[in-house]
Amino acid sequence: MAVSARRSMLGSLLRQRSLQVALLSWILLSVATVALSGARLPIQIGPHPQTPVALVISSSIALVFLVLEIGLIALITRKRPMPDMAERSPERGLALRETAALWAYGALVRLRLITGCCWRLFRMWCFAREAIQIGS
Question: Residue ranges per domain, the chain?
Answer without folding.
Answer: 3-80, 99-135
